[in-house]
């Protein structure tokens, strides 16, 4: 609606001067009010990056790690007021879960420097929980990106090939990485959380709520870990 107004502003201004149309005086004032139009443009500038991000998250090819990357790189708009900034920060915190952050972290082609101390704490706790005690050294070695973790990064053409190579030597962490990297963002809460701001459900958008979406993501991950028979790491062919 906002975009439509800006794109057709000159037409609306002309119509507001046409006496053959019954337009409310207040509407006429707003259409010709430069300050009002500036506020509308600011709202568009604020919402567009988030809308574009959500559209990417809805693609079947986007995993939770990809979505985490988008959110980590999305900066608060300069025009955010204090309330908007606070709301934005809180939403990002709920979106960047341990699963999403670990998926991002286990992609060696991502920029790990954007991860905060708190992000790394969540990732470490997740890996300690998921890796058997005597295999935690695999995580610590990957964290340094030394040895084969470094050399295979140059050899592999993508993250799935990378972990498929790594699994021959470090099957435990590779298994977790490949499972996490296959969790689609569209089945998690990453883009659904914004639907909860207004209407969770409608005839057109039957969205899951935040709690149930989070549970689905963890169920999906756990199910794949338990599925020992499915060792096909090809993203297009693997059945979930």
UniProtKB/TrEMBL annotation:
Native organism: Megaselia scalaris
Pfam name, any one: Dimer_Tnp_hAT
Superkingdom field: Eukaryota
HAT C-terminal dimerisation domain segment(s): 137-219
GO molecular function, a single term: protein dimerization activity
Protein name per its UniProtKB record: HAT C-terminal dimerisation domain-containing protein
InterPro entries: HATC_C_dom (IPR008906), RNaseH-like_sf (IPR012337)
């Amino acid at each position: 609606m906002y975009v439509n107004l800006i794109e057709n502003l000159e037409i609306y201004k002309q119509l507001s001067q046409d006496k053959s149309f019954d337009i409310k005086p207040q509407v006429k004032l707003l259409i010709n009010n430069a300050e009002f139009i500036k506020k509308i443009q600011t709202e568009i500038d604020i919402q567009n990056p988030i809308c574009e991000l959500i559209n990417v998250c809805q693609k079947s090819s986007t995993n939770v790690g990809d979505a985490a990357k988008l959110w980590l790189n999305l900066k608060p708009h300069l025009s955010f007021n204090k309330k908007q900034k606070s709301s934005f920060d809180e939403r990002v915190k709920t979106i960047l879960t341990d699963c999403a952050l670990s998926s991002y972290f286990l992609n060696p082609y991502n920029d790990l420097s954007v991860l905060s101390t708190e992000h790394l704490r969540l990732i470490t706790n997740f890996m300690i929980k998921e890796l058997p005690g005597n295999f935690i050294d695999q995580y610590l070695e990957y964290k340094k990106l030394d040895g084969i973790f470094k050399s295979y990064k140059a050899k592999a053409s993508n993250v799935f090939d990378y972990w498929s190579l790594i699994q021959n030597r470090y099957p435990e962490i590779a298994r977790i990485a490949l499972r996490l990297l296959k969790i689609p963002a569209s089945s998690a809460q990453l883009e659904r959380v914004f639907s909860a701001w207004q209407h969770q459900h409608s005839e057109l958008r039957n969205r899951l709520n935040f709690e149930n979406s989070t549970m689905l993501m963890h169920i999906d991950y756990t199910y794949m870990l338990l599925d020992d028979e499915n060792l096909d790491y090809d993203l297009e062919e693997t059945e979930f």
